[in-house]
Amino acid sequence: MPASSVSMPVIQELLSPPGLVHKPQWESVKATDMSVTIEERGRPNTQDYRVFFKNSEGKYISPFHDIPIYANEVENIFHAVVEVPRWTNAKMEIATKDPLNPLKQDMKKGNLRYVANVFPHKGYIWNYGAIPQTWEDPNHKDSDTGCCGDNDPIDICDIGNKVCSRGEIIKVKVLGTLALIDEGETDWKVIVINIEDPEAADFNDIDDVRRLKPGYLEATVDWFKRYKVPDGKPENQFAFNGEFKDRDFAIKTVKSTNEFWKALISKRTNAGELNCMNTSVSDSPFCCSAGDAEAVVKSACAFGAEDPIPSTVDKWFYDEK
């Protein structure tokens, strides 16, 4: 790709009735009428690569704080930010500690992090991402898991047929959740389906996944259990004996993390190292001007040609279960 800082063509429209104004701004009944584009900076597959987000007015926004949690609150349809497209290995994530929270690749021991292929899996087996305006509070001990949150937005695994694009914003239906215990922290994995999937109407709860996509839930548990083993770490553990909780439980969990986020963005709880810079939550003490947001993006490296992905990323690891 030629060197450029022009926005990528990934566009997703998030529609709601016009004219809705609410205070505080995060409490929208449906969703803000907006479209989101992404702008790449730096060179893909390098440490300086970033993916920033812009709204329909061309204003830079945070995917963590500025994209509404709800696509339709009445019907419990949520927005999700796709960090990692299915079948890929680069561990991209919302940079919660950086201004405007762009997507960037996680680092491990000074190197870019790629998730290992643990047979029979190749890369991520769903579109993986997060629900905006949620936060798993590390100071809150979950009454069900007995562990505190992992300090990140809540994660989603989209089981739809489409392989999404990095940075794509999708509208999802929540089906259930798995409670991963990652190094002593609660790390919810919410199973969702893109509402634009041609089969979305057939999926309304976790049992529908078990019935219509046999083996997928078992593969999901296996993936999360063993994906760190090639790095020399022990198998991950789960609450509820690795059993999935249903739709109602999952929606309640998502909404509770939205409440934690509200406390975070309004400075009613300590943000610690998290960066809460945003451009649209007007009641937030962290709300900044469009000019300040633009300065953050312009300070990043210009978009350039990608580096090749290391051939070692394709290695398959075999691990006795």
Describe the structure.
With 321 residues, this protein is an alpha+beta fold. The chain has four helices and 17 strands. The strands form five sheets. It has a five-stranded mixed β-barrel with strand order 6-12-13-15-14. The protein has a four-stranded antiparallel beta sheet with strand order 1-2-3-4. Strands 7-8 form a two-stranded antiparallel sheet. A hairpin with an 8-residue loop joins β2 (34-41) and β3. The longest helix is centred in the C-terminal third of the chain and has 19 residues, at 247-265. The model is unreliable at 1-33 (pLDDT under 50).
Question: Could you give the count of β-strands?
Answer: 17
Order of the strands making up the biggest sheet: 6-12-13-15-14
- How much helical structure, as a percent, in the residues? 10-25%
Instruction: Give the biggest sheet.
Output: 5 strands, mixed, barrel
Low-confidence region ranges: 1-33
Strand content: 15-25%
Q: Supply Rg.
A: 19 Å
> What is the averaged pLDDT score?
90
Note the topology.
Elements: E1 12-14, E2 34-41, E3 50-54, E4 60-61, E5 70-72, E6 77-84, E7 92-94, E8 103-105, E9 107-108, E10 111-112, E11 117-118, E12 127-130, E13 155-158, E14 169-182, E15 185-194, H1 206-212, H2 216-226, E16 237-238, H3 247-265, H4 290-298, E17 316-317
Parallel strand pairs: 11-17, 13-15
Antiparallel strand pairs: 1-2, 2-3, 3-4, 5-6, 6-12, 6-14, 7-8, 9-10, 12-13, 14-15, 14-16
